[in-house]
Amino acid sequence: ERAFAGAKTRFEGYCPTLKGSPRWWDISVAPVLDDKGQIQRVIAISRDVTDRMSRYLQAESSRASLEELANMQANQLGVSSDALCYQQSLLKEVDLRLRSSHAMTAGLLNWQSRMTENDDARDRLKKASDRVSAVSKIYEFLYRDGSVDGVQLKTFISALCNELMPKSAMGRIGLKTKVASRMASTKEAVALGVVL
Q1: What band does 15 get if pLDDT is binned at 50, 70 and 90?
Q2: What is the CA radius of gyration of the chain?
Q3: Which of 151, 149, 148, 169 has its CA nearest to residue 160?
Q4: Cα-flanking dihedrals φ and ψ of residue 16, to 5°?
Q5: Angle, CA 151 vertex, CA 150 and CA 153 arms, to 5°
Q6: For the whole prediction, is pTM greater than 0.70?
Q7: Would you give the DSSP letter of residue 18?
Q8: DSSP character string of 36-100
């Protein structure tokens, strides 16, 4: 229609041959004018571009498949990320409750040690209270640092030793640690902290 209106046009289209072979064509259509500028006829030139179009369609199909795969993986990562965030928030909640429980237990042990008249019992209750307080400090240290899955052992042990050292001993006692530089789980860190 555009050619009959006097405009040149070009397009690509699918049209099988007379024998039924699939073919893609690059078609140019232009009007042929007479001496007076009137459209006398329309000429069409077709060029077989089946190979190029086949490569293009294969590339598009591969791109669509890769895009679909990327979207599926992104969705899976999103679900995994949400699940991980939820798990981390649950762990933090559990450890917050543990620290509260430790603080209450240490307080009760301290109160009992002040109430008892037996020196040996008082000493044992005080040591038990100190141990519970130490565990509470370990959890506080771990989660103040935002560590849920694990900690860098060297940093954790050095910082915890400084944290647990009595204030009265600062400056009078030198502390040197030699720890392997590796990651430790929260469970391992708590166990090591209790030993310290």
Answers
A1: confident
A2: 40
A3: 151
A4: -70, 155
A5: 130
A6: no
A7: T
A8: TS-EEEEEEEEEE-HHHHHHHHHHHHHHHHHHHHHHHHHHHHHHHHHHHHHHHHHHHHHHHHHHH
